[in-house]
Amino acid sequence: MPTLRLWGQINILSFRKQVELIERCAREQGFNTAVVDIGTKVSPFRNHIEKQILFIVAMPHLLLWAFKMGWKAYADATVVYATCEGKPKVNQHIINLIKDLRFIGVSRFAADRLADVGCRVIGWVPHALDPLEVEKVENETIDKGDGFTVGYVGSPIPRKGLGLLNEAAKIVYEKGYKDIKFKIWTQRWGDCLLPSGPNISIIENFGKAEHIDVMRFYRSLDLYVQPSLAEGFGIPIIEAMSVGVPVVSSNAGPMGELNHQERGYLVKATNLRLEDHGLGQDFYCYYYNPKDMASMIIEAYENPGELSKKAERAKEFAKNFYYNNVYPQLIRMI
Hints:
Elements: E1 3-8, H1 13-28, E2 32-37, E3 49-57, H2 60-69, E4 75-83, E5 86-88, H3 92-98, E6 102-105, H4 108-116, E7 120-124, H5 131-138, E8 148-153, H6 162-174, E9 180-185, E10 200-203, H7 211-219, E11 223-226, H8 235-242, E12 247-250, H9 253-258, E13 265-267, E14 269-276, E15 281-288, H10 290-302, H11 304-318, H12 323-332
Parallel strand pairs: 1-2, 1-3, 3-4, 4-6, 6-7, 8-9, 8-11, 9-10, 11-12, 12-13
Antiparallel strand pairs: 5-15, 14-15
Helix pairs in contact: 1-12, 5-7, 6-10, 8-11
């Protein structure tokens, strides 16, 4: 059987799950598989294989690493499966080096941003869901508690938009909707401020729990909010949808590719800014008015019948992202 080597930043929780699903799909497709963290040294020629996927964030230093690992000495065929949230800060030298690499974006948005800087993009394949996890969580009894719970899962870094979410939560409270509670599952990170307020609770073990526990958290919610200014894909959006939880998000970037007014709640982006957050790319940050986000949350709360209909549509839509529907395409593109 041919061997497929899958490189990934497996220290990142969301990446680790996607690596697991790609590997599972490859085994089902008849490959021997080898998962390797990008920090591992592999010898050319001696560790030569038939196919490999380099799963990375499109930062300049990782693009240079991809150039090296894409040599024929490492594998007969290589694709770079890349997430990109804006414009990588690559110079002409880097572009010249990687021009022959084949790139696959994790979203249409990511593919377009990679092409903007001269990458040879051959298509895009979305991130995927684990139907076994979805089924397991769906069959569990999970106490949602009293009131109406809006949740978030992710980092507190600025481009995730927690500042705007904090403002939206404050507006909801000041309008008298004391029954709407916000649960923020995140972590302490440098000097990033975490949301605070009488209707906000913080869970600080993001990145430490098992992925199945993240799925259980989604299931415990009435509504999920993705306040991000920038994303490469937005995996929590479809994860929440898969267990029947509608999503509030911006209508811009990859968020707008996944969410829709038929199955969720869209907040109109009013301003696009390219921002340098010190990570090797100018992020495409789509700003919106937190009053609009608060209005969407209140609309979901006040219209439980419509919320229920959106939940069913969201769950059905998410089935398109089961790994066995998605990742065979990625493997065929190597």
